[in-house]
Design brief:
CATH class of the largest domain: Mainly Alpha
Largest sheet: 3 strands, antiparallel
Strand order of the largest sheet: 1-3-2
Helix content: 55-70%
Distance between the termini: 55 Å
Mean pLDDT: 78
Number of strands: 3
Low-confidence stretches: 21-25, 29-33
Radius of gyration: 24 Å
Shape: extended
Order of helices and strands: HHEHHEEHHH
Number of domains: 2
CATH architecture of the largest domain: Orthogonal Bundle
Strand content: under 5%
Amino acid sequence: MFFRIFAKGIQRLVTKKLKKHYINTNYDLFFKMALNTNKNLKLYYSISEVAEQFDVAESLLRFWEQEFPQLKPHKAGRNIRQYSKEDIEMVKTIYNLVKVRGLKLAAARKILDKNKEGAMNISEAITKLKNIKSELVTLRHNLTLLAPDEIEV
């Protein structure tokens, strides 16, 4: 918060000085880069954010922490769980194995113990394939709107 107030004060000062001397400057670009409010830069996510992302209950994530030793989110003061990007990738892999593929917890645990990277690669491949499928369905729909008689569905 202090940095934003400080940066805005400097921006006002620099703006006044630059308007007198320079017409074409890139000072706005500098301040936009300094005040990046992009939410993708978060280091940690709360358990509620992760649960919402996967559409599961928070209690399920806590249960998976007990069942899968690979899932260890950082615990801040008062045992508040903070999930990093790596933890979210592990949750995605577990979700894929248990919820999407329908494996039992013991089988999913064995797969993760034996081949963690392979299981994560399969999870990423499935996500990419789903995205490609949705793009193809959208493309087919758009093509049928353009020429409904020529395209067979």
